[in-house]
From TrEMBL:
Cross-referenced Pfam families: BD-FAE
Domain BD-FAE-like: 44-210
Keyword Nucleotide-binding: no
Signal sequence coordinates: 1-18
Phylogenetic lineage: Bacteria, Pseudomonadati, Bacteroidota, Flavobacteriia, Flavobacteriales
Domain of life: Bacteria
Name of protein: Lipase
GO MF terms held by the record: hydrolase activity
Alphabetic keyword roster: Hydrolase, Signal
Amino acid sequence: MKLRLSVFFLLLSLQLLAQQYQEVKDIQYYESPTSEYVKQQSKLDIHFPKDEGKKYPVIVWFHGGGLTGGGKEIPQELKNKEVVVVGVGYRLAPKIKAEETIDDASAAIAWVFNNIEKYHGDTSNIYISGHSAGGYLALMAVMNKDNLAEYDIDANDVAGLIPFSGHTITHFTIRDQKGIPGTQPIVDKWAPLFYVRKDAPPTLLITGDRELEMLGRYEENAYFYRMMKVAGQKEIELYEMDGYGHNMVYPALPLLLKFVKEKSDQ
């Protein structure tokens, strides 16, 4: 009997917890989609607390996949954590030029700034994150201030930038489309490193173990970290997930939540 009661109360607690959050899916973030492919891909999902009496920190999450694959997602470990989570989809190469994915990322972030209050999000606490290609898009959308300025948004209004194993050099798919080998590192206008500046939002760089990561991924993040420090940025950290390779998302998500909580409480 005691076991049955315990199971009952556990299920009841889980049900009540589920009732406190809501999800909406497939929201178009371009006001006027220019093609069927934009309509298909340029959408986002939102997981948010139902409590209307409070504004919650917002995490914008870009999926990985080399700018050629994957789909919008909200990591399960970010759900029901007193944050609003936005999972963003975007167009993919080779149907478009890979650099056009940055346009989608910027448009999605702008949509969040302009609309997330409807979903109980705090526009003064919007954090941009993502894994691999998603980390690259997070960096590019924010580091190059022109991307958000196109939507009359100051990139420095982003509360924090937390890329997971993102390229800080020019993305390998962009290099490939330009006929540049993946083993030839490039820093040009398609590289976050091109835009290092001291006034960027607080940043937490997370990578896998340098011996297990994709070629050079830890080292390029370390170089970005160093050059940001040289530029005068004081609020930047680099965290290496010892023992984990490129697929280090799950164990790193608590670091993201910790960063958001600490910055939001300031």
